[in-house]
Amino acid sequence: MYGIFMESYVIFKNYVGQGWWILAAIAVLVYLLVSKDDWRIKLPLSVCSALLLVAYFCPLTRKVFVRLLGEGDTYYRILWMIPWGTLLAYGGCRLFRRHPRAGLVLCSALIIISGRLVYRNTYVTRAENLYHIPQSVIHVCDVISPPEGSPRVRALFPAELVHFVRQYDTDILMPYGREIIASQWGYYNELHEIFEKSEVICAEDLLAASRQSQCMYIVIHEGRAIDVPLSACGLILVDTQDGYLIYRDPFIEGI
User: Fold this and answer.
1) Predicted TM-score of the model (pTM)
2) What does the pLDDT average to over 66-81?
3) Contacts of 69 (CB under 8 A, 6+ apart)
């Protein structure tokens, strides 16, 4: 039981991250529990939140959760049901109403201490366009996008572009989407295995799988290793954009 409790604690610690906001939220929760506030506010904000927090750390809850759902990776979602933001906002408003100056100083200090400059995050980059997607995706899609009124086309993209294609142009279909890239879902696609998992792509296997998926276009980075150039296999090099080679397959085009 202690081991299960510690697993829950580690998940909770990763969930709350850094900063002092969680201590402030728990302080507000405790204050509401012992205060004589209106029960219409007290019940949903403090009582239910406290019960959920206790249930989260209870090892039996985790055992039941895993038994019913078959996995414990999403156990942290129980914490989503606790209105942390509402607790902080309500506590801050109460503090401002009773002690305006102290409220200003304390709330400002909490925001400054708990916050971090978002632009220092490695996953945050400057937007290249209004779509907030890599500009290379726009350049490639503009080349292969069908004319207005024409049937949609299917294209094979490298994994780093798959997430963004449908955000920009829904007339371009793909043999697989982001579900195949997320390893935890365990999906299998033969074309993805050939295109992404091989150190050196076998052009013959790639064409066989792409034609089975009816891909008219194959987009491949110029630095990707392949045993035979696709142009030597009958494909037409349409264009090169931002280091990506765009090939059209006349076999699919003629179907």
Assistant:
1) 0.61
2) 82
3) none
